[in-house]
Amino acid sequence: MRFEFAARGAPYGLWALLLVLLLAGCGERIHKQQSYVFGTLVEITIYGEEQDKARRATDQVLRDFDEMHQTLHAWQPGQLETINDRIAKALPGKPARATLKPELAAMLSDAARLSEQAESLFNPAIGNLVRLWGFHSDSFEPHLPDPSAVARLVQANPRMSDLKITGVMLEAGNPAVRLDLGGYAKGYALDLAAATLKSQGVNNALINIGGNIMALGQKGGQAWKVGIQHPRRAGALAMLELRDGEAIGTSGDYQRFFEVNGKRYCHLIDPRSGWPADQTQVVTVIAHGPHAGTLSDVSSKPLFIAGPSDWQRLAKKMGISEALFIAADGSISATRAMNSRLLWEKPAPAVKVVEAP
What we know:
Blueprint: E1 5-6, H1 11-14, E2 18-20, E3 30-37, E4 40-47, H2 51-72, H3 79-88, E5 96-99, H4 102-117, H5 127-132, H6 147-156, E6 163-166, E7 169-172, H7 185-199, E8 205-209, E9 212-216, E10 224-229, E11 236-242, E12 247-252, E13 257-260, E14 263-266, E15 280-287, H8 292-306, H9 311-317, E16 322-327, E17 332-335, H10 336-339, E18 343-344, E19 351-354
Parallel strand pairs: 17-19
Antiparallel strand pairs: 1-13, 2-10, 3-4, 4-8, 5-7, 6-7, 8-9, 9-12, 10-11, 11-18, 12-15, 13-14, 15-16, 16-17
């Protein structure tokens, strides 16, 4: 048995989503602050503001992130874990009930809406499957679960539509539901951070949560530049300029994974089979609009799971026109809108350009 491991926080895995290129010239006023939240490195970069103002704004963002982390952690004590414990005790005809914080109620309602839009390929209710595969841990061992246990959880069919949320009251009748907002929280945090910074009068910033990135304004009159990580080696595959209000999100099989006998098993579980998706190396999307952060984080997951044959259809359904898709065999596809923005590292790869969905 051979085992390779990459987790958030590892030197390679830490930047395996995106490499941010921040080249500061002489005389530029840049405030950069880092923290470790959501199991990954968070970096806030503010351009053109006085240091005290930038620090106050950044401190507030990081406090908000820490509070979210404590509330939403999928396997440590917090409100989400308490709710999951209650759901697990639901009985036929006696659904579990819980009172939610208003923000969490809104997040779960929104996640349920996006799950339906993504045809349940984005499914925060499959936390038991994620845990069965060993990914509910900061460090995990190479271990294949019992196929019959996987099949039982798939047959139980946990889904977000099992939840009924009325105001701040939650009801759930399927004890197989275990909520895991790991595919939602970082994107939501991007939107929250953007709103916080703007409320503090900060209009030019880059928010990076482990490679999920949102740009505000510009950096010295120029767009913020980011690089897309190559999925199979250190270094960038391509670069692009991220415009004001845009967010970029990536899902890859190199972020959290293990290998058993030469086969890679990543943390992105296909709810239909209960097994890690294995037809894709990486998906990168750009999202726009008032909830760009959330959409960028969420939409990359179902496109990854959908695989080469169906990602374009699902991108259209989720309103994503700029996407880069790399299949398990290394073949690269990009929507025309995305390809027009990419500056490929040399030697430039062969790219199949597809029409915008």
